[in-house]
Input
Amino acid sequence: MMAIDSGAASAEHTAGQERCKARCAGQPLAAKAASGLRIPADLDSLDLVARFVLELGRQGRLSDSQTYRLRLAADELATNIVMHGYRGASGGICVDGGVEADRVWVRFHDDAPAFDPRTGMKAPDLEVPLGERSVGGLGVFLALTAVDSFDYELVAGRNVSILAIHRSEHG
Amino acid sequence: MMAIDSGAASAEHTAGQERCKARCAGQPLAAKAASGLRIPADLDSLDLVARFVLELGRQGRLSDSQTYRLRLAADELATNIVMHGYRGASGGICVDGGVEADRVWVRFHDDAPAFDPRTGMKAPDLEVPLGERSVGGLGVFLALTAVDSFDYELVAGRNVSILAIHRSEHG
Amino acid sequence: MSFDGTLSVSEGIATIEVKGELDASTAPRFHDLVDQAAEQGAVRLEIDARHLGFLASAGLRSLVFARQKMGDEVRIAVIGATEPVSRTIRLAGFDHSIELIDA
Amino acid sequence: MSFDGTLSVSEGIATIEVKGELDASTAPRFHDLVDQAAEQGAVRLEIDARHLGFLASAGLRSLVFARQKMGDEVRIAVIGATEPVSRTIRLAGFDHSIELIDA
Ligand SMILES: Nc1ncnc2c1ncn2[C@@H]1O[C@H](COP(=O)(O)OP(=O)(O)O)[C@@H](O)[C@H]1O
Ligand SMILES: Nc1ncnc2c1ncn2[C@@H]1O[C@H](COP(=O)(O)OP(=O)(O)O)[C@@H](O)[C@H]1O
Output
């Protein structure tokens, strides 16, 4: 397993990152946890999420297409935490991730109200023309279909989601 | 019927109000339309919506409780247009309203993607303790239960919702 | 929208006084106060709602958030809510998990 | 997130060139361009997506918006989308209402 150093992702969030490590440390993943970053709950943070996932994909030697899928799911999940979870209240999102022999994973912790993203899923109704279709539910749908596994747990009042892509070549 | 002059509601939005009248004029309500205001699709506009509805309730001689209910529904609807409809894109919301013998109505037009608020309704599951409850769907529920009638139509690609409170004393 | 909230903590009781109007434009400020109250480790949270003139669903969300953050042993009460405010809280079924006092 | 969009209109065809990444942080700018294109009364909208590196659901929402604003007689095409971008458009079922060209 390889740990990702998120130091490059954001100089501004150094303090937040410390806090993140401390708060995440209590809930190690079954496998070993990697270091991560803590970002403010606003849309500007999507950029930091993207950089983190792209770097993770590189270190995990994922294909471009696998990395794209992991990033898409992470972007959608983070967007929903900001837009539907915190909704303008200040708050943090903790992101960490790691590379294991058989998979690359990204984990999100947030303190917004409890929400299991898997329950927000609505597959698009392909029969309805776009002009009449209502537009909700696409984000969760794209996130869930992009990754190979999507787990959610409410741990001590915090939302914890783990997205993973299976690696084809074992490291 | 009485028309509401929204001039008092906002000096800044005068230009927008002109545009609103012009654009709304094409779709008169079955009953006569009243003058209205056009507000930008952001949360600061909720204040203007509130002032408009409070003034309408006053002119329609609604009871405090009736005016509160109309304002609650209007606030929830406008919030959803901003948060779920436009989502940060610039856009306008057109609000007008009127007093008739048997009812006071408020109408919203917006150009965000089509959405019938009545389909977003989920009555809260009273059996589930709050600590485990997910929090979506309350806004539409409160809006729909607050008013005496809630109509929605997609007119030439625009969302049009009309909320009304029945007047007990006929004017 | 006018809103003013203050948090005070004394002898394990956190009190948030809310004045004005709570909807999507002001709820983030209330939410932040609830967050701070949760971090104080209070055994009880009292929300003084006597001067709360308006409560929309965004304010209710912050109550859900309070309920989830404070842990089951912490009691949460809304005190002195006006009739339309307490009606909204009851309609949403929150009165099963949050005490309504003097409402 | 880096995003750059430009609208040009010529002979009834509106073209929006999108460069960079479209997600919730940048989609409002794309949405605004679509809105402007719709107001031009174009008979066709072409979205030049050759340099679009990333497309999340927020960008798809703007396509729904385009479809709804432009009227049924207006044809909308996405041109030159990369493989992952066109896969997302297809997965959402948008290829029934929006032409995918050179993708
Ligand atoms: N973190 C969250 N907290 C609360 N509700 C959420 C969260 N994420 C998603 N949802 C709910 O799930 C629904 C579907 O989300 P999504 O698929 O991203 O579509 P959209 O955001 O376009 O509605 C949202 O409308 C919202 O009601
Ligand atoms: N104007 C709108 N455009 C698109 N979707 C909407 C709109 N209004 C509401 N919705 C959808 O309906 C759902 C329920 O809305 P609401 O009852 O206000 O609850 P909440 O906003 O807390 O999710 C929202 O999550 C959203 O998916």
